[in-house]
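Archive maintenance. Older records in this collection stored only the sequence; we are now back-filling the structure field for every entry so that each record is complete. The fields below show one back-filled record exactly as it appears after the update. Entries are processed alphabetically, and Aldo/keto reductase is next in the queue.

ARCHIVE ENTRY
Title: Aldo/keto reductase
Organism field: Allokutzneria multivorans
Length field: 320
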Amino acid sequence: MRYRLFGRTGLRVSELVLGTMTFDDLDRARETIAAFADAGGNFLDTASAYGESESLLGAAIERRDRFVIGTKYTLSRDAADPNGAGNHRKNLRLSLERSLRRLRTDHIDVYWVHIWDRHTPLEETMRALDDEVRAGKILYVGISDAPAWVVSRANTLAEWRDWTPFSGLQIPYNLVRRDAERELLPMAEVLGLSVTAWSPLASGLLSGAAARRVDPAKLSTREHAALDAVRSVAAEINATPSQVALAWLRRKSPSVLPLVGARNAEQITETAVSIALPDEAMRRLDSAVEFERGFPADFIAECERSPFVFGDTATELDAR
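Back-filled structure field:
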């Protein structure tokens, strides 16, 4: 397994992230993490709201220093408490302390805002996160499931006020669901954010074993097209559909780190294999599922080639 830099931090993380949301057995968790580590993986993902995941992860890890552990807060700690959820300082502090206890560690490597809370000002969240970084309880911060303008504004605030900026973005992204290519992925590339892509196999649709269990009658046109494409390419290059789907994500952007939710060591063995997709295969996968970036991206791209907008030399510019 190869490694990539996490945002603009210099932190080295594996090109695959192991999602531990479905961990429910300590022995199986230990075996899965060991297989991931043997394959070169070092980036683990969990959240305060993922049941016993944090506790199992804390009990299963033997070499804490060898792993980059990411967890999240925002989601409710107590459904009856109006302050038991949200991105404000009170929930952040209480959620963080609970996660530290569960994970049996004195710091979180990457602490994620789980989802944008429109009722909490960004200034409140960014300042509270920065305080925990300065206290040594968090090393880096990221945000999950938020609009591009929210992330951009948050990092601008951090830059102006010398607070810790977001280094990572966690969003759904796969061959079936490519919405991230409209605003979120371009923003992440410009701001230097790493993108951990959850549901990279479209909830198992694009995986080998799961694909065989899918009832074709229940699939949409897009899902049919994506599944047929990954199966076809996989057969041609002697790979599995999962490996093809993950390789497509990695080729789409060097910022993308697929987040795989393996349940056992066998699944790690399959998904940890890195394959190189030929250019022709990438073109076929890209065109298999109808996708348009829409306005303003498509309109701006068209204008960039227009003499009316940028003069007669518009098509002669070698852009960076």
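Update note: The radius of gyration is 21 Å. The CA atoms of residues 87 and 292 lie 33 Å apart.
Entry marked complete.
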